[in-house]
Amino acid sequence: MRGIIAALLILPLAEVILPGGLQVAGANWLAFVALLIAGAFVGASLGLLPGTSVDAQRINVVFAVVLTPLLSTGSTFYPWQSLGSLRWFQVATLVNPLTYLSEGMRAALTTLDTLAPGWIALGLATALTVGLLGFRRRAID
Fold first, then answer.
1. Residue 141: its pLDDT value, please?
2. Is the pTM for the entire model greater than 0.90?
């Protein structure tokens, strides 16, 4: 729920903060809502992964090691297509589930070139599956 609330709050803030306001002419609002819900489930399932894979005493180390690379390689601050001159980094960002969510939101709200919708759906479905399998493995132990 936090992710959904944050996403819904950031749009009005972007209207105020961005010079010229938020440009969402031609936005696909149905895709936006679908990605908002999918992103909430993917984020929750992936949050279960470190929580069920690491001892509680070591969870701080996991956040320190995982959080910075996750944010840096998630295509949140740049379009994935813009990494074309750094092909190795462009490929490395495909391991990060946040890349698929960022690119999906970018595709829903802008006219920028993004990853193909099929790749976005596959990336999000894979991330959801990995998170749920990690939780299931720990829950059954």
1. 62
2. no
